[in-house]
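Quarterly update, task 2.4: zinc ion-bound model.
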Amino acid sequence: MTDVDLMFKALGLAWIPRLLNAGDKNWCSVPNYYFRKQGGLNFLLKCNYDTKLFPQLPAFYKNILKSFQELKILYGYDQASDLVLYNNKEIQVDQKTVYLSKWMEKGIVSVKDLLKEDGSYLSFREFKGKFSCNTNFIQYFQIISTIPNRLRLKARQIESVNNQFFTSNDHLFHFNRNFILNLDKAKSRDFYKLFIDKTHNGGQTGPKRWSEILSLNDEQWAKIFKTTRKLCKETKLKEFQFKFIHRIVVTKRELFKYGIKTDDECCFCGENDSIDHTFIHCSFTKSFIQKVIRWFNTTYNSHISPTIEEILFGITSNSNEKGIINKFNYITLFMRYFIHSRKLNNKPIDLLDFVNAVQQRHLIENNVNN
Ligand SMILES: [Zn+2]
């Protein structure tokens, strides 16, 4: 059976080859005007963008970029695009991402290019000397002051960033070491297949590993993937849930492995941190989750007592109370995201803070797709 939702996404994505090869034809002058300011569509696709930061881009093209971002997550896009200086949602000047064509021409692509051997930033004089780039020191310091320290540490740690991939004009998209997509040749049915392969079965590494520790079969995975897509509109949460399913959520274990943290201890209980620890075993998380469920049942006058699988991936069984189930799935998704981000920032998980965050963002009313 055709998945209509994915079919629409694939049809949108099929515009990428057309846009990349349209040259100066009239029909594409509007999108090209926007994309050129960001280094062109081919470059933009490789960046760590957030379409929310492109307020002027027509919705049609925004949706294409969003769908492409989903593909990147599904295929474990691993080109360290979070270190690229441009169109990076994490590097903003005046709440806007930057693109500096002059820097790009000189081969300045990522945070790593701005670092010395010891991991500190080049002085302005050193920067000028290295790149003979015509820029003023205000601009230089503006850029380095907006780079989150986490990215500088990651850049120091990482051996190299594949600058050539980012500067290349060919249309070969390197999703990961084993998978390159030729964007010139990709048709909507190819994009459709790419989605289907990743979203309709539990046979991939992440879900497989979850299935080893939880009781989830292929049929349930199919349902999980389906509900996840329909669950909410927020990109951040969607992205988190994809990463969660594929087990690429960062915990202290990974930060320790990359040398960003000095130990791998859970900041709540001191045991070894991991995805399983954070979401299943940690006594602090467990008690927090119970509080959230009690709060939910009181607030919505319900009697849900979810299994651990339902806490982690939502309730997928058919029920007459669809409205309340959608709310539950949405709130527990936000709960997992809350636990994750609080932990990364070394902050406690507190029910009151959680409830405030839920209410402040009008999460329930605006974001649940009923
Ligand atoms: Zn713990």
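Highlight for this quarter: Residues 81-161 form one domain.
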